[in-house]
Amino acid sequence: MLTGKSYIGSQLSRNETKTFKTFNPQLNAENPTVFFEATSNEVNQAVQLAAQAFKTYRNISGSQKAAFLNAVADEILKLGDILLKMYCQESGLSISRAESERERTIGHLRMFANLVQEGSWVQATIDTSEPSRVPNAKPDIRNMLMPLGPVVVFGASNFPLAYSTAGGDTVSALAAGCPVIVKSHAMHAGTGELVAAAIIQAVEKTNMPHGVFSNLNSGGIEVGQQLVKHPEVKAVGFTGSITGGRALYDLAAKREVPIPVFAEMGSINPVVILPEALRYKKEAFANTLAKSMTTGTGQFCTNPGLIIGIKNDFLDDFIVKLSEEVAKISPSCMLHPNIKAAFRKGKSKALEQDGLRTEVVYTDNVKPNYAKQMLVSVEGQFFLNNKILHEEVFGPYSIVVKCKDKNEMEMIISNLEGQLTGTIIAENNEMQNYMSIVEALQNRVGRIIFNGVPTGVEVCNAMVHGGPYPASSDSRFTAVGINAIKRWVRPFCYQNWPDYLLPDALKNENPLGLLREVDTKHTKSSILV
Ligand code: NAP
């Protein structure tokens, strides 16, 4: 069923002799399909087609876009076990994880279908004219959100479905009215091709313009760089490492016409445990935290990589308990030998730093590509003075920082880089004494959690998945939830424009029945003239 070719719009294409294969980390062997790297000609064709498609796609109705997104969901489901098996073969992740990620992908598609079907997301805002206003007549001003144009999407290695070919970035951009060119992730090119085929089926069944979606194979960084530099590309969505995201952000900024890069990158997700919680919750929480640290072999952007507490006997007891729980967990497979190598290197680099103490490390033999989980600890001063200890070690690794007091805890939190999440574990009666800690944490993160764990990102309207740099390149936006659509649009304004030439969203009659702001009031009513 797999061809190893790229999709340039609806056409399968293969022009290059440069090839690559994906890898099955459970079998420690290459998968059989040969994938063909997209050429610069193919990159250019895909972008030109997307630019052509944009002329039609930008004006397609919300109902038509909803039908398209729902058809993508249906076609992905039709792939059945073939997709799930391919996902497992290329990631080493379990079948149940594949199922849950597929469910999440389908959920995202249906959520955006509902959003564009209803339509009010365009935030139509109307200020009607006042011709008799003195000293100057007030013009009629109407504004709404408009799509930016072709978007390039880079998916992450650790979410072959939910943050990849038909992941949150692709789906929100298509919902906004932007054609999408996916730079397929080299580690799961087969999963990518299957999902791309499903999207192309949906394009054809719902009569979307040719070129509204393309999927380009690439085993290196050149295709992605060419895409970001292409003048017809208007925005980029990226999920991955800080190094990769920053490189693409800088590249986009150096273009003659710079474009936005919405990069969701690494994070160590601080978990702050307050003293009373340590006293009363340490046993139960150690168990919960050990699972959160190791779930998905620690390969989650929301993995709790940093645990912060104030030094006392309860913290020592908690570390012992957490170490026991971490030691009990059977090691699991990482996504790829390169990720395993990076994990090993990250642990070794951390261990070379002054003051680091190993609390527990899995020592038994493990299968190739399986990760040996590790918990380390360090005194607050060492952590404060050494930024290497703040770096993400992508995998099942966490560091406990033992602060001498509340002031040091606040200083440590204030000196952290931007993070996706922050967690407070506390008893209610101690919260009022630690509001300065809560504020310091709020300042560094995009989502704050009370008495829970950061892993498990709910897909819902209110979710924020982003945060101050480097968690994301622009903390004003989220990559998960309906507000993710706002990354791909710009506000556009009509002044004194004749009603019959306005888009339906802004017409007096309100033919789409949208909730609009008219003369500062929210209403679904039409405007009487
Ligand atoms: P990655 O190595 O940065 O790769 C992501 C994608 O970007 C790949 O397609 C890669 O292409 C491309 N790329 C990387 N560097 C590039 C460059 N300089 N120029 C052009 N393209 C480049 O990340 P990963 O290993 O896939 O993912 C793991 C990381 O993602 C972790 O740090 C994790 O925390 C983060 N992550 C973040 C989130 C979030 O929402 N914030 C979610 C999941 C994962 P090639 O594969 O061809 O090199």
Automatic annotation (TrEMBL):
InterPro entries: Ald_DH/histidinol_DH, Ald_DH_C, Ald_DH_N, Aldehyde_DH_dom, Aldehyde_DH_Superfamily, ALDH_KGSADH. Keywords: Oxidoreductase. GO terms for molecular function: oxidoreductase activity, acting on the aldehyde or oxo group of donors, NAD or NADP as acceptor. This is Aldehyde dehydrogenase. It comes from Pseudalgibacter alginicilyticus. The keyword Phosphoprotein does not apply. Residues 16-466 form the Aldehyde dehydrogenase domain. Coiled coil: none annotated. Pfam families: Aldedh (PF00171). It comes from the Bacteria. The keyword Oxidoreductase applies.
